[in-house]
Design brief:
Helix content: 25-40%
Number of helices: 13
Structural class: alpha/beta
Radius of gyration: 23 Å
Shape: globular
Strand content: 15-25%
Largest sheet: 5 strands, parallel
Bound molecules: flavin-adenine dinucleotide
């Protein structure tokens, strides 16, 4: 690791997706030394997930949209890395960000980013910085249904990751199901790569978009994108079933078919509409949730399930900014706009200046528009209201701890649990490796409790040996010594 004591302020950016990359480039271009930390093997995040280098993909752009934007980000990063303005740490899994208050009154805080290096995630690395940008993105929400643990059932994003990252198809005949815009690129991606997509099953009712006509009309590019996906689905003869849901996955040992059914206006399955579709892959997703672990551990305020930020993308913890899907699900363009604004703000604030708002006026306008657009999408693309009624008692809900729906129901109906935490204490649902990231929404739905963000002290499982290690061991980086005003 290089010495950071060169007089320039030092920013740690966690997450190298569209938000983190754009912020890193904007801050570095304004004289900030940046360390960009990401757990993936290559920068790009979810939207620009790169094919593993060893596979030698000849035309990786065939799997991507907005490849030019990616080339600009990639080349910009390479330029700053070569010039020593940005250090890019891939394969670094951040488990905690520590904030040290200034030692004298009014002195700025400093931060220590704790990460684990490598595939085993056992080698500790620390990065010291004057400010932190959280750009950790989001993850998929998947609700349980009978058979969802069968091999062959994958998340929609997981199917896409296999394709983009590994150039492999999860199977030959796929059903893509759930709700939300992510289903479209996944279905089209699988079909264009040679899979037969037997059905695209969307639980939302597209007619509900009519209520948001004004907002949609303000985004012709998004409408054109939707029309393009519709044309691609037609070209690949993908049968789209809206107001439908998957009620069960079937198979002996692995997935062989799914049953889909129509939904009524209350989100209940309409009896007699069940239809069995043979397939070896079910790519399913019920929307997205922001990653907020690191922000919560730092004490940042949340707005619902999103990290709350101000106009400059500052959280309410001095020295901590957040951008991209950690502040709310809204796509790559919104993430990029927020990252750009954060980068400008950080560069100014680290040099005790107020950022020039005119320098990010167009990004702020784009941000407002995209937030409005995705708020409309969010109200339409919701899982069926009565999904929990179709979860049979023997369905496993918490996969890490193998807790069934009946155990959760018993905790609520017979043992009196009234919140997710009590259900967890009674059943162990959410106590396993993923710490409730996967099962949290399902447990809340089955227990009829509000979905609350669960406080986890660490963002990743950490070996005890790492926790026991004294600070200042090898891999420590020196703090930068610049003073700044984070207010
Ligand atoms: C699985 C999945 C597939 C998607 N596919 C599409 C698609 O096909 N089309 C589309 O329009 N949108 C898609 N989206 C949404 C789109 O990717 C996002 O809108 C966009 O990438 C958000 O950018 P971001 O920078 O906020 O976060 P991301 O692109 O998600 O980047 C966040 C980065 O943070 C890193 N990170 C997270 N936590 C840590 C940690 N603790 N330590 C170190 N690094 C960490 C991750 O490795 C990741 O690289 C997808 C989202 C997901 C989750």
């Amino acid at each position: 690791m290089t010495d950071r004591t060169d007089g320039r302020p030092h920013l740690a950016v966690i997450g190298a997706g569209p938000a983190g990359l754009t912020a890193a480039l904007a801050a570095a271009a304004r004289g900030v030394r940046v360390t960009l930390v990401d757990s993936a093997a290559q920068a790009g995040g979810q939207f620009y997930r790169q094919t593993a280098p060893g596979l030698g993909a000849r035309r990786p752009q065939a799997l991507h949209h907005q490849w030019r934007t990616w080339e600009r980000l990639r080349d910009g990063l390479a330029g700053h890395v070569a010039a020593g303005r940005v250090t890019s740490l891939t394969d670094h899994h951040v488990w905690f960000v520590e904030r040290q208050s200034g030692t004298t009154g009014g002195a700025p805080a400093s931060f220590t980013v704790h990460a684990l290096l490598g595939p085993e995630q056992e080698e500790p690395v620390t990065v010291h910085a004057d400010a932190v940008l959280l750009a950790t993105g989001g993850y998929e929400k998947v609700l349980p249904f009978p058979g969802w643990t069968l091999p062959g059932v994958v998340t929609a994003g997981g199917a896409q990751a296999m394709l983009k990252g590994g150039l492999v198809l999860p199977g030959r005949t796929a059903v893509v199901a759930g709700t939300g815009p992510l289903l479209l690129p996944v279905a089209v991606g699988l079909a264009s790569a040679g899979a037969k997509v037997a059905a695209l099953v969307e639980s939302a009712d597209p007619r509900a978009f009519v209520r948001h006509a004004r907002v949609l009309a303000a985004h012709p590019a998004k409408l054109a994108e939707g029309a393009w996906y519709a044309a691609e689905l037609a070209r690949y003869r993908v049968r789209t079933r809206v107001r439908h849901t998957v009620v069960a996955a079937h198979g002996t040992g692995r997935l062989e078919a799914v049953t889909v059914a129509a939904l009524d206006g209350d989100g209940r399955v309409r009896p007699g509409t069940e239809r069995r579709i043979p397939c070896d892959t079910l790519a399913v997703g019920h929307g997205m949730l922001p990653h907020t672990d690191l922000a919560e551990a730092l004490g940042c305020r949340l707005d619902g399930v999103d990290v709350a930020v101000d106009d400059e993308q500052r959280t309410d913890v001095p020295g901590v900014w957040a951008a991209g899907e950690t502040t709310g699900i809204g796509g790559a363009a919104l993430a990029g706009a927020e990252g750009g604004i954060a980068g400008v703000s950080i560069a100014a604030r680290l040099n005790s200046r107020i950022p020039d708002r005119s320098s990010y006026a167009s990004a702020a306008k784009a941000r407002a528009g995209m937030r409005e657009f995705f708020a409309a999408v969010d109200t339409v693309c919701v899982p069926p209201a009565r999904w929990a009624e179709h979860v049979t008692d023997d369905t496993v809900v918490c996969r890490c701890e193998e807790v069934t729906a009946s155990a959760v129901r018993e905790a609520v109906d017979e043992l009196g649990a009234g919140d997710v935490r009590t259900v967890k204490l009674l059943t162990r649902a959410g106590m396993g490796w993923c710490q409730g990231r996967m099962c949290g929404p399902a447990v809340a739905g089955l227990a009829r409790c509000p979905e609350t963000p669960s406080r986890r002290p660490f963002a990743r499982p950490v070996p005890l040996g790492v926790l026991a290690r004294e600070p200042g061991e090898p891999h420590d980086t020196s703090p930068s010594t610049t003073g700044w005003d984070p207010s």
